[in-house]
Amino acid sequence: MGLNKIYIIGHKQPDTDSICSVIGYAELLNRAEPGKYIPARCGEVSPETRFALDTFNAEAPVYVASVEPTVSDIPLDTRSARQDVPTIDVAALMDTYDMRNMPITNGDETLVGLVSEYGLARSYVRKNPREQLSLIPMPLETLARILDARIFVSSREALGQARVYTVIDALHVTLSRMTPDDIAIVGDNEPAQLALISAGVAALIIAEGAPVGERVIDAARTRGASVLATTLDAFSVGKMISLSLPASMIMETDIPTVRLDDSLEYAKSVVSNSKFRTACVVGDERQHIGLVSRTTLMQDVQKSVILLDHNEYSQAVDGIEQADILEIIDHHRLGAISTLKPVRFLNDPVGSTSTIVANKFIEACVEPTPSTAGLLLSGVLSDTMVMKLSTTTPADIRAADYLAGIAGVDPAEYGPELIRKGMDLDSLPKDELLTRDMKRYNLFGKSIMVSQVMASSFDFAETHAAEIRKEIERLRTTMGVDCFFALFTNVFSNASDLFAAGDEACIAKMDLRDQPVRLEGVMSRKKDFIPKFGHMFRQI
How do residues 45-68 score in pLDDT, each as one tens digit? Predict the structure, then answer.
Protein backbone atom coordinates (compact mmCIF):
# COMPACT_ATOMS: atom_id res chain seq x y z
CA MET A 1 0.00 0.00 0.00
CA GLY A 2 1.58 3.25 -1.14
CA LEU A 3 1.43 6.36 1.00
CA ASN A 4 0.48 8.48 -2.02
CA LYS A 5 -2.78 6.53 -2.31
CA ILE A 6 -5.98 7.10 -0.34
CA TYR A 7 -7.96 4.02 0.60
CA ILE A 8 -11.74 4.20 0.71
CA ILE A 9 -12.91 1.41 2.98
CA GLY A 10 -16.08 0.21 4.65
CA HIS A 11 -16.63 -1.74 7.84
CA LYS A 12 -15.71 -5.25 8.88
CA GLN A 13 -18.09 -7.95 7.62
CA PRO A 14 -19.11 -5.62 4.80
CA ASP A 15 -22.59 -5.79 3.31
CA THR A 16 -23.57 -4.88 -0.23
CA ASP A 17 -24.03 -1.20 0.60
CA SER A 18 -20.57 -1.00 2.16
CA ILE A 19 -18.84 -2.62 -0.83
CA CYS A 20 -20.79 -0.81 -3.55
CA SER A 21 -20.58 2.65 -1.99
CA VAL A 22 -16.81 2.28 -1.69
CA ILE A 23 -16.51 1.44 -5.39
CA GLY A 24 -18.81 4.31 -6.34
CA TYR A 25 -17.07 6.96 -4.25
CA ALA A 26 -13.65 5.90 -5.53
CA GLU A 27 -14.87 6.31 -9.11
CA LEU A 28 -16.22 9.79 -8.39
CA LEU A 29 -13.02 11.03 -6.71
CA ASN A 30 -10.76 9.47 -9.33
CA ARG A 31 -12.46 11.55 -12.03
CA ALA A 32 -10.51 14.53 -10.65
CA GLU A 33 -7.38 12.66 -9.52
CA PRO A 34 -7.08 9.43 -11.54
CA GLY A 35 -5.66 6.45 -9.66
CA LYS A 36 -5.29 8.19 -6.33
CA TYR A 37 -8.31 6.64 -4.59
CA ILE A 38 -8.40 2.89 -4.04
CA PRO A 39 -11.64 1.08 -3.17
CA ALA A 40 -10.89 -1.35 -0.35
CA ARG A 41 -12.59 -3.81 2.01
CA CYS A 42 -11.61 -5.42 5.30
CA GLY A 43 -13.91 -8.44 5.13
CA GLU A 44 -15.19 -11.16 2.83
CA VAL A 45 -17.68 -10.53 0.04
CA SER A 46 -21.12 -11.98 0.76
CA PRO A 47 -23.07 -14.07 -1.79
CA GLU A 48 -25.48 -11.18 -2.28
CA THR A 49 -22.65 -8.73 -2.97
CA ARG A 50 -20.91 -11.21 -5.25
CA PHE A 51 -24.13 -11.45 -7.29
CA ALA A 52 -24.19 -7.66 -7.66
CA LEU A 53 -20.53 -7.53 -8.70
CA ASP A 54 -21.01 -10.31 -11.25
CA THR A 55 -24.20 -8.74 -12.62
CA PHE A 56 -22.42 -5.47 -13.37
CA ASN A 57 -19.04 -6.96 -14.34
CA ALA A 58 -17.14 -5.35 -11.48
CA GLU A 59 -14.17 -6.43 -9.39
CA ALA A 60 -14.38 -6.57 -5.62
CA PRO A 61 -12.44 -3.85 -3.78
CA VAL A 62 -8.89 -4.76 -2.78
CA TYR A 63 -8.66 -6.62 0.52
CA VAL A 64 -6.87 -4.71 3.27
CA ALA A 65 -6.42 -6.53 6.58
CA SER A 66 -4.93 -3.53 8.38
CA VAL A 67 -4.03 0.09 7.76
CA GLU A 68 -1.26 -0.01 10.32
CA PRO A 69 1.89 1.30 8.59
CA THR A 70 4.19 -1.42 7.29
CA VAL A 71 7.69 -1.65 5.88
CA SER A 72 6.22 -1.23 2.38
CA ASP A 73 5.16 2.31 3.34
CA ILE A 74 8.66 3.70 3.89
CA PRO A 75 11.44 4.47 1.39
CA LEU A 76 14.06 1.73 1.24
CA ASP A 77 17.73 1.90 0.31
CA THR A 78 17.84 -0.65 -2.50
CA ARG A 79 21.61 -0.66 -3.05
CA SER A 80 23.52 -3.92 -2.74
CA ALA A 81 26.74 -5.53 -3.92
CA ARG A 82 27.46 -8.93 -5.47
CA GLN A 83 29.30 -11.47 -3.37
CA ASP A 84 32.18 -11.68 -5.88
CA VAL A 85 32.89 -7.93 -5.74
CA PRO A 86 36.25 -7.13 -4.07
CA THR A 87 35.93 -5.88 -0.51
CA ILE A 88 37.72 -2.65 -1.35
CA ASP A 89 34.99 -1.86 -3.90
CA VAL A 90 32.28 -2.58 -1.35
CA ALA A 91 34.02 -0.22 1.07
CA ALA A 92 34.18 2.46 -1.63
CA LEU A 93 30.44 2.14 -2.27
CA MET A 94 29.71 2.42 1.43
CA ASP A 95 31.86 5.53 1.64
CA THR A 96 30.27 7.09 -1.45
CA TYR A 97 26.72 6.58 -0.21
CA ASP A 98 27.50 7.02 3.49
CA MET A 99 26.32 3.51 4.34
CA ARG A 100 27.33 1.65 7.47
CA ASN A 101 26.12 -1.66 6.09
CA MET A 102 25.98 -3.10 2.58
CA PRO A 103 23.72 -6.06 1.68
CA ILE A 104 25.47 -8.76 -0.32
CA THR A 105 23.66 -10.84 -2.95
CA ASN A 106 24.41 -13.71 -5.27
CA GLY A 107 23.80 -13.87 -9.00
CA ASP A 108 20.00 -14.06 -8.74
CA GLU A 109 19.74 -11.18 -6.23
CA THR A 110 19.19 -13.52 -3.26
CA LEU A 111 20.42 -11.99 -0.02
CA VAL A 112 23.42 -13.96 1.28
CA GLY A 113 25.07 -11.64 3.79
CA LEU A 114 25.98 -8.17 4.99
CA VAL A 115 29.27 -6.26 5.00
CA SER A 116 29.43 -3.88 7.95
CA GLU A 117 31.89 -1.22 9.03
CA TYR A 118 32.91 -3.55 11.84
CA GLY A 119 33.49 -6.37 9.36
CA LEU A 120 35.65 -4.13 7.20
CA ALA A 121 37.73 -3.07 10.19
CA ARG A 122 38.18 -6.67 11.23
CA SER A 123 39.29 -7.55 7.71
CA TYR A 124 41.80 -4.72 7.66
CA VAL A 125 43.25 -5.42 11.09
CA ARG A 126 43.90 -9.09 10.48
CA LYS A 127 43.38 -11.54 13.33
CA ASN A 128 46.76 -13.20 12.77
CA PRO A 129 49.57 -10.88 11.72
CA ARG A 130 51.73 -13.92 10.93
CA GLU A 131 49.25 -15.21 8.40
CA GLN A 132 50.61 -15.47 4.87
CA LEU A 133 49.28 -12.72 2.58
CA SER A 134 47.49 -14.28 -0.37
CA LEU A 135 45.52 -13.38 -3.46
CA ILE A 136 42.42 -15.04 -4.83
CA PRO A 137 42.01 -15.59 -8.58
CA MET A 138 41.23 -12.31 -10.30
CA PRO A 139 41.82 -10.49 -13.59
CA LEU A 140 45.10 -8.63 -13.81
CA GLU A 141 43.18 -5.47 -14.70
CA THR A 142 41.22 -5.71 -11.42
CA LEU A 143 44.39 -5.97 -9.37
CA ALA A 144 45.87 -3.00 -11.21
CA ARG A 145 42.74 -0.95 -10.49
CA ILE A 146 42.82 -1.82 -6.80
CA LEU A 147 46.50 -0.87 -6.52
CA ASP A 148 46.13 2.16 -8.78
CA ALA A 149 48.96 0.58 -10.76
CA ARG A 150 50.18 0.71 -14.34
CA ILE A 151 50.61 -2.57 -16.18
CA PHE A 152 53.95 -2.72 -17.96
CA VAL A 153 53.82 -6.36 -18.95
CA SER A 154 50.56 -8.35 -19.24
CA SER A 155 51.71 -11.90 -19.71
CA ARG A 156 48.55 -13.26 -18.05
CA GLU A 157 45.01 -11.91 -18.31
CA ALA A 158 44.22 -13.32 -14.88
CA LEU A 159 46.13 -14.35 -11.79
CA GLY A 160 45.29 -17.52 -9.91
CA GLN A 161 45.24 -18.41 -6.21
CA ALA A 162 48.60 -17.18 -5.00
CA ARG A 163 50.70 -16.29 -2.00
CA VAL A 164 52.09 -12.75 -1.93
CA TYR A 165 55.63 -12.02 -0.71
CA THR A 166 57.07 -8.64 0.20
CA VAL A 167 60.71 -8.81 -0.79
CA ILE A 168 62.67 -6.31 1.26
CA ASP A 169 65.76 -8.29 2.15
CA ALA A 170 66.86 -11.92 2.45
CA LEU A 171 66.06 -12.42 -1.23
CA HIS A 172 67.39 -15.95 -1.21
CA VAL A 173 64.95 -16.96 1.52
CA THR A 174 61.97 -15.65 -0.48
CA LEU A 175 63.21 -17.33 -3.67
CA SER A 176 63.40 -20.67 -1.87
CA ARG A 177 59.73 -20.44 -0.88
CA MET A 178 58.10 -19.07 -4.00
CA THR A 179 56.22 -21.09 -6.62
CA PRO A 180 55.42 -20.12 -10.25
CA ASP A 181 51.91 -19.04 -9.15
CA ASP A 182 53.07 -16.58 -6.52
CA ILE A 183 53.38 -12.80 -6.57
CA ALA A 184 56.23 -10.66 -5.31
CA ILE A 185 56.17 -7.07 -4.04
CA VAL A 186 59.52 -5.35 -4.51
CA GLY A 187 60.97 -1.87 -4.36
CA ASP A 188 63.65 0.00 -6.36
CA ASN A 189 66.01 -2.96 -6.67
CA GLU A 190 66.51 -4.08 -10.25
CA PRO A 191 68.74 -7.10 -9.43
CA ALA A 192 66.06 -8.39 -7.06
CA GLN A 193 63.39 -7.74 -9.67
CA LEU A 194 65.31 -9.72 -12.30
CA ALA A 195 66.04 -12.53 -9.85
CA LEU A 196 62.37 -12.89 -8.99
CA ILE A 197 61.38 -12.94 -12.66
CA SER A 198 64.04 -15.56 -13.38
CA ALA A 199 62.66 -17.64 -10.50
CA GLY A 200 59.35 -17.79 -12.38
CA VAL A 201 56.94 -15.64 -10.38
CA ALA A 202 53.46 -15.10 -11.82
CA ALA A 203 53.55 -11.35 -11.28
CA LEU A 204 55.89 -8.69 -10.00
CA ILE A 205 54.52 -5.60 -8.23
CA ILE A 206 57.04 -2.76 -8.13
CA ALA A 207 56.09 -0.43 -5.27
CA GLU A 208 56.86 3.11 -4.09
CA GLY A 209 56.88 4.59 -7.61
CA ALA A 210 60.17 2.86 -8.48
CA PRO A 211 61.15 2.92 -12.17
CA VAL A 212 60.59 -0.12 -14.35
CA GLY A 213 63.63 -0.76 -16.52
CA GLU A 214 63.68 -2.16 -20.03
CA ARG A 215 65.72 -5.18 -18.87
CA VAL A 216 62.98 -6.03 -16.38
CA ILE A 217 60.26 -5.63 -19.02
CA ASP A 218 62.15 -7.81 -21.54
CA ALA A 219 62.84 -10.48 -18.92
CA ALA A 220 59.22 -10.55 -17.83
CA ARG A 221 58.01 -10.99 -21.39
CA THR A 222 60.50 -13.78 -21.94
CA ARG A 223 59.63 -15.63 -18.72
CA GLY A 224 55.83 -15.02 -18.95
CA ALA A 225 55.58 -12.86 -15.84
CA SER A 226 53.30 -9.84 -15.48
CA VAL A 227 54.71 -6.55 -14.18
CA LEU A 228 52.76 -3.79 -12.41
CA ALA A 229 54.05 -0.57 -10.91
CA THR A 230 52.34 1.54 -8.23
CA THR A 231 53.12 4.58 -6.16
CA LEU A 232 51.90 2.78 -3.01
CA ASP A 233 54.50 1.60 -0.54
CA ALA A 234 54.96 -2.10 0.07
CA PHE A 235 52.90 -2.08 3.28
CA SER A 236 49.98 -0.36 1.55
CA VAL A 237 50.15 -2.76 -1.38
CA GLY A 238 49.87 -5.65 1.07
CA LYS A 239 46.87 -4.09 2.78
CA MET A 240 45.15 -3.35 -0.49
CA ILE A 241 45.64 -6.92 -1.60
CA SER A 242 44.14 -8.12 1.69
CA LEU A 243 41.11 -5.96 0.88
CA SER A 244 40.86 -7.41 -2.61
CA LEU A 245 39.19 -10.49 -1.15
CA PRO A 246 35.60 -10.89 -2.39
CA ALA A 247 32.79 -9.65 -0.19
CA SER A 248 31.69 -13.26 0.40
CA MET A 249 34.86 -13.86 2.44
CA ILE A 250 34.27 -11.10 4.98
CA MET A 251 30.47 -10.75 5.02
CA GLU A 252 28.39 -11.85 7.97
CA THR A 253 25.44 -14.14 7.44
CA ASP A 254 23.54 -13.83 10.75
CA ILE A 255 21.66 -10.78 9.51
CA PRO A 256 18.20 -9.66 10.68
CA THR A 257 15.50 -9.60 8.02
CA VAL A 258 11.96 -8.23 7.73
CA ARG A 259 9.30 -8.40 5.02
CA LEU A 260 7.34 -5.70 3.25
CA ASP A 261 4.11 -6.57 5.06
CA ASP A 262 5.69 -6.50 8.53
CA SER A 263 4.50 -3.63 10.71
CA LEU A 264 6.83 -0.72 11.38
CA GLU A 265 6.62 -1.48 15.10
CA TYR A 266 7.97 -4.96 14.46
CA ALA A 267 10.67 -3.62 12.14
CA LYS A 268 11.73 -1.14 14.84
CA SER A 269 12.12 -3.93 17.39
CA VAL A 270 14.21 -5.99 14.94
CA VAL A 271 16.49 -3.05 14.12
CA SER A 272 16.92 -1.96 17.75
CA ASN A 273 17.94 -5.50 18.76
CA SER A 274 20.38 -5.91 15.89
CA LYS A 275 24.11 -5.40 16.34
CA PHE A 276 24.06 -3.79 12.89
CA ARG A 277 21.27 -1.35 13.87
CA THR A 278 19.69 -2.20 10.55
CA ALA A 279 17.65 -4.95 8.87
CA CYS A 280 17.42 -6.26 5.32
CA VAL A 281 14.03 -6.40 3.62
CA VAL A 282 13.54 -9.65 1.72
CA GLY A 283 10.85 -11.26 -0.42
CA ASP A 284 9.32 -14.71 -0.21
CA GLU A 285 12.33 -16.33 -1.86
CA ARG A 286 14.75 -14.26 0.24
CA GLN A 287 15.45 -11.94 -2.69
CA HIS A 288 16.93 -8.63 -1.59
CA ILE A 289 14.47 -5.71 -1.68
CA GLY A 290 16.07 -3.02 0.44
CA LEU A 291 17.55 -1.90 3.73
CA VAL A 292 15.90 -0.24 6.73
CA SER A 293 17.77 1.57 9.48
CA ARG A 294 16.98 3.53 12.61
CA THR A 295 17.01 6.72 10.54
CA THR A 296 14.40 5.54 8.03
CA LEU A 297 12.20 4.20 10.83
CA MET A 298 12.12 7.58 12.59
CA GLN A 299 9.75 8.98 9.97
CA ASP A 300 6.14 9.64 10.92
CA VAL A 301 4.18 7.34 8.62
CA GLN A 302 0.39 7.18 8.30
CA LYS A 303 -1.88 5.69 5.67
CA SER A 304 -4.67 7.94 4.46
CA VAL A 305 -8.19 6.53 4.56
CA ILE A 306 -11.79 7.55 3.94
CA LEU A 307 -14.34 5.61 5.99
CA LEU A 308 -17.70 4.73 4.49
CA ASP A 309 -20.85 3.19 5.98
CA HIS A 310 -19.62 3.32 9.61
CA ASN A 311 -18.09 5.69 12.12
CA GLU A 312 -17.08 3.41 15.00
CA TYR A 313 -13.69 1.97 15.97
CA SER A 314 -15.27 -1.42 16.71
CA GLN A 315 -16.35 -1.76 13.07
CA ALA A 316 -13.32 -0.19 11.43
CA VAL A 317 -10.40 -1.90 9.74
CA ASP A 318 -7.56 -2.96 12.04
CA GLY A 319 -4.93 -0.29 12.62
CA ILE A 320 -7.37 2.59 12.13
CA GLU A 321 -5.99 4.30 15.28
CA GLN A 322 -2.68 4.79 13.44
CA ALA A 323 -4.21 5.98 10.15
CA ASP A 324 -4.90 9.48 8.89
CA ILE A 325 -8.70 9.63 8.54
CA LEU A 326 -9.55 12.21 5.89
CA GLU A 327 -13.31 11.82 5.62
CA ILE A 328 -16.25 9.84 6.98
CA ILE A 329 -19.53 9.22 5.12
CA ASP A 330 -22.24 7.30 6.92
CA HIS A 331 -25.96 6.93 7.55
CA HIS A 332 -25.89 5.24 10.98
CA ARG A 333 -25.91 6.60 14.50
CA LEU A 334 -22.87 8.52 15.73
CA GLY A 335 -20.11 6.32 17.07
CA ALA A 336 -16.94 6.89 19.03
CA ILE A 337 -14.30 7.64 16.39
CA SER A 338 -12.20 10.67 17.27
CA THR A 339 -9.49 12.35 15.21
CA LEU A 340 -6.55 14.64 15.98
CA LYS A 341 -7.48 17.10 13.26
CA PRO A 342 -10.74 18.22 11.64
CA VAL A 343 -12.09 15.91 8.94
CA ARG A 344 -15.01 16.04 6.53
CA PHE A 345 -17.88 14.17 8.15
CA LEU A 346 -21.20 13.55 6.44
CA ASN A 347 -23.84 11.59 8.33
CA ASP A 348 -27.19 11.63 6.53
CA PRO A 349 -30.13 9.62 7.95
CA VAL A 350 -31.07 7.99 4.66
CA GLY A 351 -31.49 4.30 3.91
CA SER A 352 -28.00 3.61 2.56
CA THR A 353 -24.55 5.06 2.07
CA SER A 354 -24.94 4.32 -1.64
CA THR A 355 -27.74 6.93 -1.68
CA ILE A 356 -25.33 9.53 -0.31
CA VAL A 357 -22.69 8.64 -2.91
CA ALA A 358 -25.29 8.80 -5.71
CA ASN A 359 -26.25 12.29 -4.53
CA LYS A 360 -22.59 13.31 -4.62
CA PHE A 361 -22.46 12.31 -8.30
CA ILE A 362 -25.55 14.43 -8.93
CA GLU A 363 -24.15 17.43 -7.01
CA ALA A 364 -20.87 17.20 -8.94
CA CYS A 365 -22.74 17.02 -12.27
CA VAL A 366 -20.89 13.79 -12.99
CA GLU A 367 -22.66 10.66 -14.22
CA PRO A 368 -21.43 7.29 -12.91
CA THR A 369 -20.62 4.57 -15.41
CA PRO A 370 -23.47 2.09 -16.00
CA SER A 371 -21.56 -0.54 -14.02
CA THR A 372 -21.05 1.73 -11.01
CA ALA A 373 -24.64 2.97 -11.25
CA GLY A 374 -25.78 -0.65 -11.06
CA LEU A 375 -23.62 -1.30 -8.01
CA LEU A 376 -24.85 1.81 -6.20
CA LEU A 377 -28.41 0.77 -7.03
CA SER A 378 -27.62 -2.63 -5.48
CA GLY A 379 -26.43 -0.89 -2.33
CA VAL A 380 -29.62 1.15 -2.06
CA LEU A 381 -31.91 -1.84 -2.70
CA SER A 382 -29.99 -4.07 -0.29
CA ASP A 383 -29.93 -1.67 2.66
CA THR A 384 -33.60 -0.69 2.23
CA MET A 385 -34.79 -4.22 1.42
CA VAL A 386 -36.14 -2.98 -1.91
CA MET A 387 -37.64 0.07 -0.22
CA LYS A 388 -39.50 -1.99 2.40
CA LEU A 389 -37.53 -0.98 5.53
CA SER A 390 -38.76 1.85 7.70
CA THR A 391 -35.41 3.57 7.20
CA THR A 392 -36.24 4.16 3.52
CA THR A 393 -36.51 7.86 2.67
CA PRO A 394 -37.66 9.79 -0.42
CA ALA A 395 -33.97 10.43 -1.11
CA ASP A 396 -33.40 6.66 -1.46
CA ILE A 397 -36.28 6.34 -3.90
CA ARG A 398 -35.00 9.25 -6.01
CA ALA A 399 -31.47 7.83 -5.98
CA ALA A 400 -32.70 4.38 -7.04
CA ASP A 401 -34.67 5.86 -9.96
CA TYR A 402 -31.66 7.92 -11.06
CA LEU A 403 -29.25 4.96 -10.87
CA ALA A 404 -31.66 2.49 -12.50
CA GLY A 405 -31.97 4.78 -15.50
CA ILE A 406 -28.20 4.81 -16.03
CA ALA A 407 -27.73 1.09 -15.34
CA GLY A 408 -30.70 0.05 -17.46
CA VAL A 409 -32.16 -2.07 -14.66
CA ASP A 410 -35.72 -2.39 -13.34
CA PRO A 411 -35.43 -2.16 -9.51
CA ALA A 412 -38.72 -4.02 -9.01
CA GLU A 413 -37.33 -7.07 -10.82
CA TYR A 414 -33.66 -6.86 -9.86
CA GLY A 415 -34.18 -6.00 -6.17
CA PRO A 416 -35.96 -9.20 -5.01
CA GLU A 417 -33.50 -11.34 -6.99
CA LEU A 418 -30.58 -9.56 -5.30
CA ILE A 419 -32.08 -10.06 -1.83
CA ARG A 420 -32.75 -13.76 -2.41
CA LYS A 421 -29.07 -14.31 -3.30
CA GLY A 422 -28.13 -13.30 0.23
CA MET A 423 -30.64 -15.61 1.91
CA ASP A 424 -29.18 -19.07 1.39
CA LEU A 425 -29.10 -19.57 5.14
CA ASP A 426 -28.66 -23.37 5.21
CA SER A 427 -25.28 -23.16 3.49
CA LEU A 428 -23.66 -21.25 6.37
CA PRO A 429 -22.53 -22.50 9.80
CA LYS A 430 -24.62 -20.97 12.59
CA ASP A 431 -21.70 -18.97 14.04
CA GLU A 432 -20.91 -17.40 10.66
CA LEU A 433 -24.57 -16.74 9.97
CA LEU A 434 -25.00 -14.92 13.28
CA THR A 435 -21.79 -12.89 13.14
CA ARG A 436 -21.59 -11.74 9.53
CA ASP A 437 -23.88 -8.74 10.21
CA MET A 438 -23.76 -7.74 13.84
CA LYS A 439 -23.15 -4.51 15.70
CA ARG A 440 -22.24 -3.66 19.26
CA TYR A 441 -24.11 -1.03 21.28
CA ASN A 442 -23.75 0.40 24.75
CA LEU A 443 -27.15 1.29 26.17
CA PHE A 444 -27.54 2.70 29.66
CA GLY A 445 -24.55 0.84 31.05
CA LYS A 446 -25.30 -2.42 29.23
CA SER A 447 -23.14 -3.87 26.48
CA ILE A 448 -25.26 -5.55 23.82
CA MET A 449 -24.66 -7.17 20.43
CA VAL A 450 -27.37 -7.20 17.79
CA SER A 451 -27.12 -9.59 14.85
CA GLN A 452 -29.50 -9.37 11.89
CA VAL A 453 -30.18 -12.15 9.40
CA MET A 454 -32.35 -11.40 6.40
CA ALA A 455 -34.71 -14.20 5.32
CA SER A 456 -37.50 -14.71 2.79
CA SER A 457 -39.71 -16.50 5.35
CA PHE A 458 -39.90 -17.48 9.04
CA ASP A 459 -39.27 -21.16 8.31
CA PHE A 460 -35.52 -21.16 8.98
CA ALA A 461 -35.80 -19.46 12.38
CA GLU A 462 -38.60 -21.79 13.49
CA THR A 463 -36.87 -24.96 12.28
CA HIS A 464 -33.47 -24.13 13.83
CA ALA A 465 -34.69 -22.33 16.97
CA ALA A 466 -32.89 -24.60 19.45
CA GLU A 467 -29.57 -24.36 17.61
CA ILE A 468 -29.88 -20.58 17.34
CA ARG A 469 -30.57 -20.15 21.07
CA LYS A 470 -27.57 -22.33 21.94
CA GLU A 471 -25.25 -20.47 19.57
CA ILE A 472 -26.21 -16.96 20.70
CA GLU A 473 -25.63 -17.95 24.32
CA ARG A 474 -22.15 -19.15 23.34
CA LEU A 475 -21.48 -15.95 21.40
CA ARG A 476 -22.65 -13.81 24.33
CA THR A 477 -20.14 -15.52 26.62
CA THR A 478 -17.33 -15.47 24.06
CA MET A 479 -17.78 -11.79 23.26
CA GLY A 480 -18.28 -10.73 26.86
CA VAL A 481 -21.50 -8.78 26.31
CA ASP A 482 -24.47 -8.48 28.67
CA CYS A 483 -27.02 -9.43 26.01
CA PHE A 484 -26.87 -10.91 22.52
CA PHE A 485 -29.87 -10.40 20.23
CA ALA A 486 -30.47 -12.09 16.88
CA LEU A 487 -33.09 -10.70 14.49
CA PHE A 488 -34.29 -12.99 11.71
CA THR A 489 -36.03 -10.46 9.47
CA ASN A 490 -38.61 -11.62 6.92
CA VAL A 491 -38.18 -9.05 4.18
CA PHE A 492 -41.47 -9.94 2.53
CA SER A 493 -43.66 -9.95 5.69
CA ASN A 494 -42.54 -6.75 7.40
CA ALA A 495 -41.64 -8.53 10.64
CA SER A 496 -38.73 -10.12 12.51
CA ASP A 497 -38.29 -13.11 14.82
CA LEU A 498 -36.17 -12.24 17.84
CA PHE A 499 -33.82 -14.52 19.79
CA ALA A 500 -32.08 -13.23 22.93
CA ALA A 501 -29.37 -14.42 25.33
CA GLY A 502 -28.66 -12.68 28.63
CA ASP A 503 -28.96 -13.02 32.38
CA GLU A 504 -32.29 -14.39 33.58
CA ALA A 505 -33.44 -11.13 35.16
CA CYS A 506 -32.82 -9.18 31.97
CA ILE A 507 -34.61 -11.71 29.76
CA ALA A 508 -37.57 -11.83 32.14
CA LYS A 509 -37.80 -8.04 32.40
CA MET A 510 -38.06 -7.77 28.62
CA ASP A 511 -40.53 -10.68 28.45
CA LEU A 512 -38.30 -12.77 26.17
CA ARG A 513 -38.48 -16.19 27.88
CA ASP A 514 -40.37 -17.83 25.01
CA GLN A 515 -38.35 -17.54 21.82
CA PRO A 516 -38.47 -16.64 19.08
CA VAL A 517 -40.61 -13.56 19.68
CA ARG A 518 -42.41 -12.22 16.63
CA LEU A 519 -41.90 -8.44 16.28
CA GLU A 520 -44.37 -7.01 13.78
CA GLY A 521 -43.14 -3.99 11.84
CA VAL A 522 -39.54 -4.43 13.02
CA MET A 523 -37.37 -4.40 9.91
CA SER A 524 -34.52 -2.08 10.81
CA ARG A 525 -32.03 -2.71 13.57
CA LYS A 526 -31.19 0.95 14.07
CA LYS A 527 -34.61 2.53 13.49
CA ASP A 528 -37.04 -0.09 14.82
CA PHE A 529 -35.29 -2.44 17.22
CA ILE A 530 -32.75 -0.26 19.06
CA PRO A 531 -35.17 2.60 19.88
CA LYS A 532 -37.80 0.17 21.20
CA PHE A 533 -35.51 -2.02 23.30
CA GLY A 534 -33.31 0.91 24.32
CA HIS A 535 -36.19 2.21 26.39
CA MET A 536 -36.46 -1.20 28.07
CA PHE A 537 -32.77 -1.09 29.05
CA ARG A 538 -33.37 2.27 30.66
CA GLN A 539 -35.78 0.53 33.08
CA ILE A 540 -33.48 -2.39 33.95
Answer: 988 999 999 999 999 999 999 999
